[in-house]
Specification:
Layout lengths: L2 H19 L4 H17 L4 H15 L7 H10 L6 H14 L3 H12 L5 H17 L2 H18 L4 H11 L10 H10 L3 H7 L1 H22 L10 H10 L1 H15 L5 H18 L7 H33 L2 H10 L4 H18 L2 H18 L4 H14 L8 H10 L3 H7 L1 H16 L10
Helix pairs in contact: 2-3, 3-16, 4-16, 5-15, 5-16, 6-7, 6-13, 7-8, 7-9, 7-12, 8-9, 8-21, 9-21, 9-22, 10-19, 12-23, 14-15, 16-19, 17-19, 18-19, 18-20, 19-20, 20-23, 21-22
């Protein structure tokens, strides 16, 4: 079909849709459209199709944004240099898994945490923290750690439900401990320096990991989980660090280059890829180059999932801005006229939105709606991004969305809600850390003002 014919079809289709809603009040039409989108979401239609349906329907009801806006948003959003870091960070994580150096990371984690009560559970959590500093993704972290530790935890006598909940909770670190793919998307979308978001995420990430380990240790001690096979030894830790040197070198390059300002996030990820492959090649750990095809294929697949959701989310954000919803929501919250009530309202909305929306749509749609009220409480834009991302991470272990719960349910075959109930102690710990930084954002001395 020629380009002219496509334009004619597009124009005729738009006129037909506009004619269908011409007799309706715009407010009524928008309410019906929203109700239909909610229905699609409830029955399990993929979020990309739900958002696309709403965005296209909005363009029909309010022609201020033509259907061609989707192409324009796609072009201008993707024409952003920092966004190139996303596939590169995903590729680093894929290479780590394909090159099998994950076992060295597990060995290091065991040397660090294996001597605690709940040895393997805590080893899984520390491994999740290290994986997070490589993959920058909660899903990749949860799946990798889940595959590596599920059988081992079962063999050591852990309750399978507790094991699944522990690994799911550890996966929440994936979007907080830098480098984080979501921090990159947040910085690009809201024009904030990605490197400052990375730095501001260090302390919350460390506290989250510490809180999870303490919780796991206490539960394991009460239930007599774990083994005395592993003891604390500085020599063992040193040997494990040496064995895991290639993966640790990748982390140093990734974060060191960014924090010192020598490299941009994209450049750091590119150099980390070169370092990992070269180090493994020189170590004699590479027998064939099939890992390249596998890693690149996985990267393309994940980027193909992330980018379309990002684009449609931005289109909805534009539509909500046209409706002035940001001011309406912020004014409604600020009308509570009490810092305590405003703070409680923000926390409740953040936790609820994180539990029902996927991370990228939640970040793009909800964060700017609540931002004016957060700024009125004295929270800086950088710290607001970190605080919101912590709430987004908590959403990975809270129904009905709870992506990490779904991942562990698929790996273990355990009912989703059983894992969710077992994850409640971790939920309360992570929520406490969220409240801590929300009430006292100045505690994060690494956050830029």
């Amino acid at each position: 079909m020629t380009g002219l014919a496509l334009q004619v079809v597009d124009h005729v289709g738009l006129l037909a849709l506009q004619a269908a809603v011409a007799g309706l009040d715009p407010g009524v039409a928008l309410a019906l459209l929203t109700a239909f989108a909610v229905f699609l979401f409830i029955v399990g239609v993929p979020i990309l199709l739900v958002f696309s349906t709403w965005a296209i329907g909005f363009s029909v009801i309010f022609p201020v944004f033509s259907l061609r806006n989707m192409a324009l948003v796609s072009y201008y959003q993707l024409w952003t240099f920092p966004l190139t870091a996303v596939p590169l960070f995903i590729l680093v994580g894929a290479l780590i898994n394909q090159l099998r150096i994950a076992r060295d990371i597990i060995g290091l984690s065991r040397a660090v945490a294996g001597w605690l009560p709940g040895s393997s559970a805590n080893t899984a959590l520390v491994t999740a923290g290290v994986f997070s500093a490589i993959t920058g993704s909660n899903a990749a972290t949860t799946a990798s750690v889940g595959e590596a530790f599920t059988d081992e935890l079962d063999e050591e006598g852990y309750d399978p439900v507790f094991s699944a909940a522990t690994i799911a909770a550890g996966g929440t670190l994936g979007i907080i401990i830098p480098p984080s793919v979501l921090f990159i998307l947040y910085g690009v979308t809201f024009n904030l320096p990605v490197s400052e978001l990375f730095v501001a995420g260090i302390l919350p990430g460390v506290l989250m990991l510490s809180g999870l380990v303490v919780t796991s240790t206490l539960i394991s001690y009460r239930r007599d989980y774990g083994t005395t096979e592993y003891g604390f030894s500085l020599t063992s830790i040193a040997r494990s660090i040496f064995r895991a040197r290639n993966s640790l070198l990748a982390i140093v390059v990734l974060l060191g280059g960014i924090f010192t300002g020598v490299f941009t996030p994209s450049e750091s990820a590119s150099i980390a890829i070169l370092v990992v492959v070269t180090a493994e090649l020189l170590s004699g750990h590479i027998d064939s180059f099939d890992f390249v095809t596998e890693s690149v294929s996985l990267t393309i697949y994940l980027v193909g999932i992330i980018i379309p959701v990002l684009i449609t989310s931005i289109m909805i954000q534009q539509s909500l801005s046209f409706l002035n919803l940001q001011d309406i929501v912020s004014n409604a919250i600020l009308a509570l006229d009490s810092p305590l009530l405003v703070g409680v309202a923000l926390l409740v909305v953040m936790l609820l939105s994180g539990s029902v929306l996927a991370s990228i749509p939640n970040m793009i749609l909800t964060a700017p709606l609540l931002a004016p009220a957060a700024f009125a409480l004295g929270i800086s834009p950088i710290m607001w991004g970190v605080i919101f991302m912590i709430s987004d991470a908590i959403g990975f272990i809270t129904p009905p969305y709870g992506l990490n719960l779904y991942i562990m349910s698929s790996i273990t075959g355990i009912d989703y809600m059983k894992i969710a109930r077992a994850a409640l102690p971790y939920f309360f710990v992570l929520t406490s850390i969220l409240i801590l930084f929300f009430v006292f954002p100045e505690l994060n001395v690494l956050a830029a003002g």
